Amino acid sequence: MSYTIDTNLAASQVPDGFLSDTSDFLCTLFDRPKKVIMGQLRSGQEFDFSGSTDHCVVMNLTRGSLRPNTSTDEEAIERYVAAISEYLQNALGVPKSRIMIFYYEHDMALIGNNGRTLKRIWSEIGTFPSD
C-alpha cells in the first residue's frame, strides 16, 4: 500500500511524526502490516481548490488487492474515505471539505518491491487479510 499527501500547508505546520502516525492509522484501517506501506508528504504545494487557496490536502492512496477489477464496494470506500478524512482533519487542522482522496486498487502481482511482487511477499507473510 502506498500513499502520497500533497498539501499547501508549510512543512512547519505538519506535526512531527505525521507520516509514521498516518502509516499506523492506515495499516489499522486496512488491516495490513506496516511492512507493506510507504508514505510520502509533499508540503508547501500551490493549490487552487474550488477557487480558493485556503489550506487543503490531496491524498492518492493505492492499495494492493487479491481481487482487483471486481466491482467496487462504494459503501466500503465511503467508510475508508470518511475515516481518512476525519483523521486528516484532526491531524492537520484542514476541514474535511478541503480534503480530496483518490483511492486506487491494483493487483498485487503488478506491484513490486525488493525484486519481488507484493503477491509473492504476502505469500511469505501469511494469509492476506480479507478486504
Describe this protein's structure.
- The protein is of the alpha/beta class and 131 residues long.
- Helix content is 31%, strand content 25%.
- The protein contains three helices and six strands.
- It has a four-stranded mixed β-sheet, covered by helices on one side.
- The radius of gyration is 16 Å and the shape is globular.
- The chain starts with a strand and ends in a 6-residue tail after the last helix.
- The mean pLDDT is 89.
- Keywords: Cytokine, Isomerase, Secreted.
- Its EC number is 5.3.2.1, 5.3.3.12.
Cα separation of the termini = 13 Å
Please identify the structural class as seen in this structure.
alpha/beta
Low-confidence stretches: none
Strand tally is 6
| Rg from alpha-carbon coordinates | 16 Å
* Strand line-up in the sheet with most strands: 2-1-3-4
Mean of residue pLDDT? 89
Biggest sheet overview: 4 strands, mixed
Helix percent reads: 25-40%
Secondary-structure element series: EHEEHEEEH
Q: Strand fraction band?
A: 25-35%
Number of helices: 3
Question: What is the 3D shape?
Answer: globular
Helices and strands in order:
Layout: E1 2-7, H1 18-30, E2 38-42, E3 57-65, H2 74-92, E4 99-107, E5 112-113, E6 116-117, H3 118-125
Parallel strand pairs: 1-2, 3-4
Antiparallel strand pairs: 1-3, 5-6
Helix pairs in contact: 1-2
